[in-house]
Amino acid sequence: MTETPSANTPVLSVRTATLADVDPLVRLVTSAYRGEASRAGWTTEADLLDGERVDPAVLRADITRPHSRVLVVDDGGPLACAHVAVEDGAGYFGMFAVRPDRQGRGVGRALLAEAERVVRDEWGQALLRMTVIDARADLVAWYVRRGYVRTGRIKPFPYGDERFGVPKRDDLRFEVLEKRL
Prior knowledge:
Layout: E1 14-16, H1 22-33, E2 49-50, H2 56-64, E3 68-74, E4 78-87, E5 90-98, H3 107-122, E6 127-133, H4 137-145, E7 149-156, E8 166-167, E9 173-180
Parallel strand pairs: 5-6
Antiparallel strand pairs: 1-3, 2-8, 3-4, 4-5, 6-9, 7-9
């Protein structure tokens, strides 16, 4: 990773996921967002959704397709991950997770910076885009503090497609956030 170390942002060793990582990454991402284990961190969606957070078949496709990379930080197993890709003429960022017991220590901030570097320096994209459940005001605010802009563009939540979880509410939707790199 090329980030300069600071007191609040650790320098991470980031690698690209392989197909052997699919099951451990599904467990990591699910633990960061779903169920009681996710409540140990601040990224939980346990009050919003049940079920899986990432579909193994979708993850396998993300690992193997061109202009797509799943970044992994290991610490005796996956500690954090994120997916970056080129989609619709811009970088895309998603599937971002840090093990709940390690959240709030700068790992996510450092991995986000590495994802931005890959999209900007390796793929030549000037814009990074993501979607966030807009009911997650704390998460949206975290991204805004890192330079992302709320676009006001809303996408519907894929109700009925359990690859994205089982909703506990009927008002879920995604907001598109963007950052110029």
